[in-house]
Amino acid sequence: MDNLYRDYILEHYRNPHNQGALDPHDLSFADSNPTCGDEMSMTLRLDEAKQRVADVAFTGRGCAISQASASILTDELRGMTVDELRGIDPREVVENLGVPIGPARLKCALLAYKVLQGAVIGAEARWPDEAEALAGGNEGGSAP
Amino acid sequence: MAVEQAAPDVFDGAALRADFPVFDRPHRSGKPLAFLDSAASAPKPRVVIEAIADAYAHHYANVHRGIYELSEDATARFEGARRALARFIGAPSEREVIFVRNATEAINLVAYSWGRANVRPGDLILATEMEHHANLVPWQQLAQATGATLEYVRLTDDGRLDLDDLRARLARGPRLVAFSQVSNALGTITPAAEIADLAHEAGAVVLLDAAQSVPHMPVDVAALGVDFVALSGHKMLGPSGIGALWGRRELLDAMPPFLTGGSMITRVTLEGTEWNEVPWKFEAGTPAIAEAAGLAAAIDYLTELGMANVRAHERFLFEHAWSALRELDGVRLLGPDSSDEHAGVISFVIEGVHPHDVATIFDGEGIAVRAGHHCAQPVMHRYDLPATTRASFYVYNDLDDIGRLTDAIGSVQRLFGTT
Hints:
heterodimer; A: Sufe protein. Chain: A; 37% helix; globular; B: alpha/beta; Aspartate Aminotransferase, domain 1; 2 domains; 7-stranded mixed sheet; 4-stranded antiparallel sheet; 39% helix
């Protein structure tokens, strides 16, 4: 548990990167974590050719895990094509946090991913299956 | 925190924990379990677990059907559980006690059966801002289905029901007033008998959500003067899958069935059906037979402890925890600042730290609490919070648990650098 709250996670929580809302923007979505009701919204601006992400920002209050995950994920997005956004593997989003995430906190870790998918493919975006998202063996010490 | 000498009417938590096998389970933290989430669901004492096993091993057949010894035995025990629950809650008649899955189903039964038969377009239904979703969503659905209006009695800043607001809304003659005796999200104890009186003067039928009160304090439904009471077995040391609706006989008699099928009928032809009498009219299909045996054992266990003692024990723990937490910087407590109006449930916020993070860090200390909106999102909106952390007490908790809770809050604040 203690290594869940490493210094860089707490640093992202206190000072999240890419905080705010872009106006104008090309893509946007807002969603909430059904386990706690935390809300997050994300806006993305594409380059002039409407091909690649030029800028991204998110807002919302939430736990250290969801905020750090959004901060880390949004740092990766600039320069990516919309197809590449769609193809992001939720397991990598969890792994990129670099701390053990168990099933109880999985939706915290994936809220930013879910909001991003909503921005790209719309309201039909679904939460990743828990078994698949945790398939990297990155589970938080609880029995499988 | 030093463990003080317990007051004479207070239980020895460690001795009672020995009755609950779950406390023998090793926790991944390597520390003993401080279970502070009984408001969500309570651990089961050995006598309850054994009663369920005994029901399956020695007394199991379907009830109300078989013309043979085993079925007669099972039926007698099932109806005995109904009688025990009726006595436990002060119901004038065991025929007024309907077994359902849980308090949620009990409230839905009233909303569907009584509600759709009695609520008309333009009628007013009154709930409150503090309700669990179980005592809120069914009324939203009923209002939508009937064209009735649903309004909510407001909460004061310190988590009480605003009785002036209640009176103002009662003046408009609601058909139904639905409220909780204890708020699961705030711990508030509402003046149920007073509200029932006011509501009856206004001509309303009164439903009390007692899911958080029946497990923790003496409840006498006749003395409270309400019309319907919903409760869950799993919060009162009994099994999940069984709960009850108590209702006044004349109301139940006049209500149409909720679920239909076997055992709730007296005569079925292809043209039509005659309903069974209450309570069986509302118990379609094979009921929770072994769970009823478990619930009866839980009632025996609680009765032996004495519900007034249970309440005194939780009041003692609440007072200690409340005064300890109130001294902490950066901690906000919700709900009334008086143990007369506050059950053994403390909802709090550590400034700058999300409740999910609090619960994860507590878990690392072997402390189980609830973090989130507690199925009461309007309460969170009312106090402009996304979520809270909630510690709730029961008979097996003691001052050591309270001390660990207080210490763990300090650990969270140190880790997050908020103090």
